Amino acid sequence: MSEDGRIFREAWIAGVKKYFPGEPKPGYITPWDETPEWERESAAAVFGQVRDFVRVSGGQTAKLTREQKGRFVALCWIAQIHKHIPDPKPGYVADWEALPEWQQQTDADIFEHIEQTF
């Protein structure tokens, strides 16, 4: 499970470095070994949800748009936020339309990275 979470986190960091305008907050690019436990658990859980979604679709997720893929990751992450943070800031649970472009692109990249591992 921790390897799944690590793969998710590395894809997140790669996306942040690629899409974030300017210098990202240190927390956005914290290495896996320094990532808080709840984020590690969340990363592994969302990796598993994407993996399972790809599997049960019989590989048909390739037909989804990047937006659909990114939305799936974002929604799964929001559920993890609610699981681990009793009263999250609104920005932590913002719907897709409210996310910055860099985060939308990063979420889509994460889905595609996981998708390509199967």
UniProtKB/TrEMBL annotation:
This is Uncharacterized protein. It comes from the Bacteria.
